[in-house]
Design brief:
CATH superfamily of the largest domain: MFS general substrate transporter like domains
Number of strands: 7
Strand order of the largest sheet: 1-7-6-2-5-3-4
CATH topology of the largest domain: Growth Hormone, Chain: A
Helix content: 55-70%
Structural class: mainly alpha
Shape: elongated
Distance between the termini: 38 Å
Length: 624
């Protein structure tokens, strides 16, 4: 958070955080109160119902809330919404003091309505105050902070309605706490800087059904918006089960008491917070959508492991000291932590992509569209959960079903976005195998036609380039490698373009050049090794003239010279008598240092084989 402007970010951070804290303080207290004070079947139903009531307003009034957010100044709106929270929490405090279940459930509905009004502001105000890498960082800290405040609220909520506290002080502590933290959130909201309305001429629709339906249509604006909104919504479908039903899992499978249920909720929240920050660190502040699919699959694995632990039989709820001697309990904590971690890891890039793929003037309406579909998916989850309970399915079996559905969703996500997945996956693999230093990556433009022209030292040079680029490149490769049956699906799904030397097939070369031109004119990034083959002595040989022809064919093209150094002598280079992957390499050390250096953009008449080669050689230096 050191690079974020404190005046702009800190008041927003604590206003948002204390709202999440109070929501979960109240929700956790209700879930624990219902789970451990009502008959089992009634409790199972009411826990799902309470979660559904909280999210129902997101489905009903998010369309109108997005319009309000676009029309009015955002910092003033936040103050008014936080003042409304104080009134709602006073009603909730009375509900706890009177132990009135119906009042508690109604308060949850009102809290959901207040959160619905706050939601579009939360994610649309950040792009007004932050840009570039700071936006991804701001989203990462916002998500981390949200999960930390969820954690703290969850812990305190469970603690304040535990039997020991209630026997001593009744429900006075929880009633006092919800009002106190609502007031604290209101005080912080008074320091949020002004954020001008994005669309002052916006007309507020009063027909919430019509506005909701119109807002939902915004999800299909473009591919990135659609994938972001549906990806986030699916995450909350999955997350509904692993947050709302954890107390039931604890009671029925672990046989733990209220404190153990609170610990479980805390662990998944810690994991989500860690995942939010880890994502920003792994991507170096760059948006990498491919991390979504990879995290989704890992999330599935750990959800299945968590759901498959052995049930702990007992005649009475076990205490923490009893459970720490149980392998099932200890392993479940580890699995649940990773469920949270990979959940946090995938959600931040989805929110950032949503913000960047929507127009400034209507961003709040798109956030509202996201909230509507999030709510719809969570209502579906609540209905699905209640149906499964009606069929007498155990909670751990329900978790297994949901985990399998999650695996199918993210397998389909990767299938639809293979290039993003490959970019992230190979970036992580290369950074694991080597100590890679990237120089000049900031030179590469974010969009538009680009050629990456690099020297060719080893068979894994294409993978090395994934570390240095900011979007998935299309690689040019020899036809003979492209035709390998075992790898053809991979090459095809990554949109690699096979090329044949002119002396072997003039028509094949012509077709490849036309396809490269087409991709460049579509604004793609194309990676080329202009030498044509891997060096046999470590030196850079003469570059082919294809790059100059492409420079003339695509006038707006920018070419970035890239030098790979440190790979000569590796197992993947032709160091040993011109053969690669044969015997032991010269460098046997794991994590050898590799440098990838990106030069300044060159264009037009400067794109010549000799000029590009000279620049690459200078970038490489003496280290082969």
């Amino acid at each position: 958070m050191t690079s974020l402007n404190n005046r702009k970010f800190i008041p927003f951070f604590f206003t948002m955080g204390l709202g999440a804290f109070n929501d979960n303080l109240f929700k956790s207290a209700i879930a624990i109160f219902i789970t451990y004070n009502l008959p089992k079947e009634s409790a199972n139903f009411l826990v799902q119902l309470s979660a559904g009531l909280f999210i129902l307003p997101f489905f009903l009034i998010s369309g109108i809330s997005g319009q309000i957010c676009d029309k009015y100044e955002k910092s003033r709106l936040m103050k008014l919404i936080k003042a409304l929270e104080i009134i709602i929490m006073a009603f909730g405090a009375l509900a706890f003091l009177t132990k009135n279940i119906n009042m508690l459930l109604f308060t949850l509905f009102l809290m959901g309505a207040q959160s619905t009004l706050f939601g579009p502001i939360k994610y649309s105000i950040l792009p007004q105050h932050l840009n570039g890498k700071l936006l991804l960082r701001g989203n990462a800290y916002t998500s981390m902070g949200t999960f930390i405040f969820i954690l703290l609220g969850t812990i305190l909520g469970g603690f304040l309605v535990s039997k020991n506290i209630v026997l001593e002080l009744n429900y006075i502590p929880i009633a006092s706490a919800v009002i106190f933290f609502a007031v604290m959130g209101f005080l912080f909201s008074n320091f949020i800087p002004t954020a001008l309305p994005a669309n002052p001429e916006q007309v507020i629709g009063v027909n919430f059904i019509k506005e909701t339906l119109q807002t939902v249509k915004l999800a299909n604006l473009n591919k990135k918006t659609k994938e972001s909104i549906y990806g986030i919504s699916w995450f909350w479908f999955f997350g509904f089960f692993f947050m709302a039903s954890l107390p039931i899992f604890c009671r029925d499978i672990i046989n733990g008491n209220e404190i153990i249920a609170t610990i479980y909720l805390a662990i998944i929240s810690i994991g989500m917070g860690l995942g939010s920050i880890l994502g920003e660190k792994l991507t170096k502040g760059n948006l990498r959508p491919g991390i979504v699919g990879l995290s989704g699959l890992l999330l599935t694995i750990f959800a299945l492991l968590f759901s498959s632990i052995n049930q702990i039989p007992a005649t009475a709820p076990l205490t923490f000291y009893d459970l720490i001697q149980s392998f099932s309990y200890l392993s479940s904590n580890i699995y649940l932590l990773f469920v949270g971690l990979f959940g946090g890891l995938l959600i931040v890039p989805l929110y950032t992509q949503l913000q960047l793929s929507t127009p400034d003037a209507d961003r709040s309406k798109f956030i509202a569209c996201n909230n509507i579909l999030n709510a719809f998916f969570m209502v579906l989850a609540a209905v699905f959960s209640m149906l499964l309970f009606k069929f007498k399915m155990q909670i751990n079996h329900i978790f297994i079903v949901v985990a399998c559905l999650n695996g199918l969703y993210f397998a389909a996500y990767i299938y639809r976005n293979p290039r993003d997945f490959y970019l992230t996956f190979f970036d992580l693999i290369i950074r694991l195998l080597y100590r890679v230093e990237v120089r000049g990556v900031e030179n590469i433009q974010d969009n538009g036609p680009v050629i990456i022209a690099a020297n060719h030292v080893s068979f894994i040079d294409p993978l090395l380039l994934t570390v240095a680029v900011n979007r998935p490149p299309i690689f040019i490769m020899d036809q003979s490698y492209f035709d390998l049956k075992l790898l053809q699906w991979f090459y095809t799904s990554s949109q690699s373009i096979p090329i044949t030397p002119k002396k072997i097939s003039p028509d094949g070369l012509k077709r490849a050049m036309l396809e490269i031109e087409r991709q460049l004119k579509n604004g793609e990034m194309v990676a080329i090794f202009p030498e044509g083959f891997i060096t046999r002595n470590g030196e850079i040989i003469e570059f082919k003239d294809g790059i100059s022809r492409l420079g003339k064919a695509v006038p707006e093209l920018n070419l970035y010279p890239v030098a790979i150094s440190g790979m000569w002598g590796s197992w993947f280079s032709r160091f040993k008598n011109g053969r690669a992957m044969n015997g032991l390499p010269k460098r046997r050390n794991f994590r050898t240092k590799i440098t990838v250096s990106v030069g300044k953009a060159i264009s037009g008449p400067d794109i010549t084989p000799s000029n590009v080669r000279d620049i690459v050689e200078n970038l490489r230096g003496p280290n082969l």
